[in-house]
Amino acid sequence: MKLLKLLAFLCIVGFIVYFFYGETYQDAGLKGVQEEISNDFVQLKENPKLQAITDTVKQEITLFYNQIMNKENTDTSFENGETVKKPTLHSPEQQDFSIHNIEIGDNKSFVEGELGSSKRISMNEYGINWHTYHQNYQNFLMVAYNDKEQVIGLYTNQDLLTSSYHLTMQNNQEDVREKLGKPIEGIRKGFTIYQTAHNNEYDTYLFDQNYVTIFYDLHQENKITGIQIITESMEKRKDGFYGKASDQLRNGLEYQLFDLTNASRVVHGKPILTWIDEAQETARAHSKDMAVNQYFSHDNLRGESPFDRLTNDGISYRTAGENLASGQTSSIFAHEGLMNSSGHRKNILHNDFKQLTVGVAFDDENKPYYTENFITK
């Protein structure tokens, strides 16, 4: 249909040129036609009888040409004789994966035009920020931007996935591997290959210079439970396996794990937890104790339980619980792992908990230790 419209316009232009100059265009392909038309417009503009119509005809022909050349997703206007592209809604088929109609490479202005302002900005393991978008933890999405405010990272654990492979959050690991093939086994950095396979809890693929990690719910027939998409350039920002320890990263991992927990609770129909400041130092202290003394246990080396530590720090509660994680590169991987552990999952989705705090600490190799304290005061 677009080609027929273009040909119709070319006929009109050919008629105009023939009428004034007694000649028509020869077929030289779409690009050649556009170049010939552009050259002849210089001559046509010298004829005062055509001055009023040349700009309009040129604009329409260029617009049709852009559409034929697969530029349908760009509005085209003219300023000072130049074509200006304006971003518009795109088709999910433009890239392999889209989350909430957001794709790698989109501008921050487009994202926030769609989603509004972020609810939280916090540092991640790559030394840049996750911008978190949601409406009371519905439609939960995390987005990372580069210096040019272009999307270079995406994550969601809600049903926001669109894929040219016809994958949604209703599919499982078998569907994913049937459609996408064998996942990669590791990511090479220098002479080191960092393993990406992990007990079938997630698969990582490399598509068009983007690492796509698909997480599965072992408790629900390996259905997709989350997806992370990051560019190769974003991955290269991190020299080793872990991010570089800092107070900013610690704070980021803590609040990210809090947000991820609430986003999962919403998916499972549970009420949202509120942050409890007064218990955070208890959680941080236990994470630090494990990191410094290189152990991993709910009971510390003095034999104190999580409930002993809360009581010793003057935290009153009616019921409480604790989750621990260690060695995951980010809060995303930590949370997905906790959701696949029956005891930790029970705490995350517990009906009676009302508050949550998270404490993170790093050991000498930048490995993070996570402690979640669930409380009902």
From TrEMBL:
Residues 259-371 form the SCP domain. Residues 104-240 form the CAP-associated domain. InterPro entries: CAP_assoc, CAP_dom, CAP_sf. CDD domains: CAP_bacterial (cd05379). It holds the Pfam family CAP_assoc_N. PANTHER family: SCP DOMAIN-CONTAINING PROTEIN (PTHR31157). This is CAP-associated domain-containing protein.
